[in-house]
From TrEMBL:
Recorded GO CC terms: cytoplasm
Keywords: Cytoplasm, Methyltransferase, RNA-binding, rRNA processing, S-adenosyl-L-methionine, Transferase
Domain SAM-dependent MTase RsmB/NOP-type: 172-448
GO molecular function, a single term: rRNA methyltransferase activity
Gene Ontology BP terms: regulation of DNA-templated transcription
Function field: Specifically methylates the cytosine at position 967 (m5C967) of 16S rRNA.
Gene3D superfamilies tied to this protein: NusB-like, Sun protein, domain 3, Vaccinia Virus protein VP39
CDD domains documented for this protein: AdoMet_MTases
Protein's UniProt name: 16S rRNA (cytosine(967)-C(5))-methyltransferase
Residues the record lists as binding S-adenosyl-L-methionine: 262-268, 286, 313, 332
Entry keyword rRNA processing: yes
Gene name of this polypeptide: rsmB
Length: 449
């Protein structure tokens, strides 16, 4: 069986993402499953795709310094080849610049032969002139500076500046352009965190305990952990640390009835079951039937049998739970995902500010609908993986105005061990550059009458 050039494979994937808005992780997994790319080249393919997507605006900015034609005016094939070449030459230490240029030019001769000379000239000029590359002045043009230097959409950078100020926004922009940590959660129904660390160590997998989550482990590598024996044995599942904190703030108890709305892929569902010691009832719903199968498969692997899955649009009443009242409800609302763009970097180039407004409408509708299913005295946790105020505090504020039977609980006195993660209003808000985990928000609401 012949092998495949990882650079060509990366180009093909990047082209599909541009043309079809396909997701990088799915395309990479599909390509690697063919087993035509071997050894270290498998890691190179992944690095090239994610690196180009994360650094796209910076790569185009560099190209613009050495090309007479603006990057956005270049043919798509030429633009993608230049991004691949510049990324290797400027951001991959293990690839010699000569190899980065030569391999890209060879690829250009195959894919865009008329532009091969132009691509060669731009790449070599960029290498010679790398010390003279200019960026906008951060004092005079902070939005343009952060967007070009750290490769994020200008509208998003403007939000971060408004929320954090220049110094913090630059630290966040830096973190959001880097690969994310790879974190798992011990299945405490079968093993404790220390026991799992020891077991992984015996299998040659290194890791360290997470700072905030009592059951989390940050692994030293992000290889195919689903192929590990401890995964098959149901000793852990993959879940970011910020996501692991939401069920803790919900505080589900043994024997209670809990609704996990918008539950897929099931990380929080199964964690709630762990906190309930696999005793009680969990209703896990999602609009996507295929994703519900993922939840059931994860529950089976982890040995959890208190979860009932069903299809439901959480924004409208459902006959499936019409007569049911819940002790606790988790609303992990569909959102922009701005807090996880380092995991899904292609998404940051697809989003627009108007999307947040439409998402906020849906999020409010979900809260309004599910409020009816909560018992008096019950707890609802509203959570998103977005950094946007419009999707978080603004949605909660609007809901509280419309629903005086609910009040927001201050998380600070309830969870003093997490004090530095809470806002002045007592909401949970994590930032990648400060807290070493994904951007996440949670507000705890109590039904008081």
């Amino acid at each position: 069986m012949s092998t495949k050039n990882p650079r060509r494979a990366a180009f093909d994937i990047l082209l599909r993402i541009e043309k079809e808005r396909s997701f990088a992780d799915i395309l990479i997994d599909h390509e690697l499953s063919k087993d035509l790319i071997k050894g270290a080249d498998r890691g190179l393919l992944t690095e090239l795709v994610y690196g180009v997507l994360r650094r796209q605006a910076t790569l185009d900015h560099i190209v613009g310094q050495f090309s007479k034609q603006r990057p956005e005016k270049l043919e798509l094939y030429v633009r993608l080849l230049l991004r691949l070449g510049i990324y290797q030459a400027f951001f991959l230490d293990r690839v010699p610049v000569s190899a980065a240029v030569n391999e890209t030019v060879n690829l250009a001769k195959e894919l865009a032969p008329r532009a091969a000379g132009f691509i060669n000239a731009v790449l070599r000029s960029a290498d010679r002139g790398r010390d003279g590359i200019r960026y906008p002045d951060p004092a005079e043009q902070p939005v343009q500076y952060l967007a070009a230097r750290y490769s994020h959409p200008q509208w998003l950078v403007a939000q971060w500046l408004e929320q954090l100020g220049l110094e913090d926004a630059e630290a966040l922009a830096t973190a959001m352009a880097e690969p994310p940590p790879f974190t798992i959660r011990a299945n405490t129904l079968r093993i404790g965190r220390d026991g799992l660390l020891e077991r992984l160590g015996r299998d040659g997998i290194g890791g360290t305990p997470t700072t905030w989550s009592p059951d989390g482990i940050r692994l030293n590598h992000s290889g195919a952990v689903t192929r590990l024996a401890p995964f098959a044995e149901g000793l852990f599942t993959v879940q970011d640390e910020s996501s692991q904190l939401a069920p803790l703030f919900l505080t589900p108890r043994k024997g209670e009835r809990v609704l996990d709305a918008c539950a897929a892929p099931g990380g929080k569902t199964t964690q709630i079951a762990q906190l309930m010691e696999n005793a009680g009832e969990i209703y896990a719903c999602d609009v996507n039937q295929r994703k519900l199968r993922m939840i059931r498969e994860t529950c089976d692997r982890l040995g959890i049998d208190i979860v009932r899955t069903f299809t439901m649009d959480a924004s409208t009443p459902s006959n499936a739970i019409r007569e049911v009242k819940f002790d606790r409800i988790l609303v992990d609302a569909p959102c922009s995902g701005l807090g996880v763009i380092r995991r899904n970097p292609e998404g940051k180039w697809w989003k627009q500010p108007g999307d947040l407004q439409q998402l906020a409408v849906t999020q409010f509708a979900i809260l309004e609908n599910l409020a009816e299913y909560l018992k008096v005295g019950g707890t609802l946790l509203y959570a998103t993986c977005s950094t946007s105020v419009m999707e978080n505090e603004a949605v909660v504020d609007r809901f509280l105005v419309r629903h005086p039977e609910f009040e927001a609980e201050d998380l600070r006195p309830l969870f003093p061990q997490f004090a530095s993660l809470f806002t002045e209003r007592g909401y949970f808000r994590s930032w990648p550059h400060r807290d070493g985990m994904d951007g996440f928000f949670a507000a705890r609401l109590k039904k008081v009458e």
